[in-house]
Amino acid sequence: MFLALQSSYFKSLLLGNFDESQKDKIELKDINPDDFQNFLELIHGESSVNDDTVSGILHLAEMYDAPTAIRRCEEFLSKLSQKTMPQKLQISLRYNLENLKTKCLSEITTVSDIQSIMSLKFKEMDLSTTQALLQKALDFSIKQQ
């Protein structure tokens, strides 16, 4: 029941009209067991999220549509994570973490910050992020003239 409350995927799977809802055991394929353990601990209120576990938890939280887990990971990344700003920005873009993205973009204060982001060559960069980076680069260029 707790999984069903935290995840629309598990709600459908466990309480819906699927064969799995009648079974005692359900096999989850193609997931890392450690990531799933951390995901379970997080949705149960444990503080299992850290810089080593956050990406795996976010992957599962997105896959299983678990907004509380996503929110807790975003809060960790915003407040406690020791990851670099470009790494956080990359994660925010990959998992659509708008608050984290906004925070990361606000922390860009130098041309070298933009260069460090561009060096990652992320595939997930959306138009609004690209525009924000271009605007910051233009602002820096104008200040240097």
From TrEMBL:
It comes from the Eukaryota. Residues 1-44 form the BTB domain. SMART domains: BTB. Pfam families: BTB (PF00651). This is BTB domain-containing protein.
